[in-house]
Design a protein that fits this description.
The protein has 123 residues and is mostly helical. It is built from 7 helices and no strands. The protein has one domain. Helix 4 packs antiparallel against helix 5. The relative contact order is 0.14.
Length: 123
Amino acid sequence: MTKKFRAIVNDAYKCEALVYQFETIDADDNYLGITWHSDLTIKEQVNKVYSDRGIILEALNRYEIGLCNPDDRDYRRENRQLKKFLNKYNDVNDNRIVFPLENRQLKKFLNESVIHKYQHFNT
């Protein structure tokens, strides 16, 4: 019997950063509620537990982590995948989530922000 997954879940599993989030972080933290006697795979639990908006927010979070590591080849590759995913799904139910600032804009924002004035970030 073939399992039926939502399209957003199948597309999320094409992004390495989201696979890592679901299969490693969420599974290890037991966010998905998988126990040793569970009949469901992690992908099935993601399909069950996460709303579309929740998956989009996880993608946005992983994308922002990648923006903080612009010199890392793996993060750049993951961010290309995530950007493609976010561009496809960011308009779900006309509830658009603000796309993160690009590196140049992010640096400008941090330099002008109140947080920077308190020296919480090294820029």
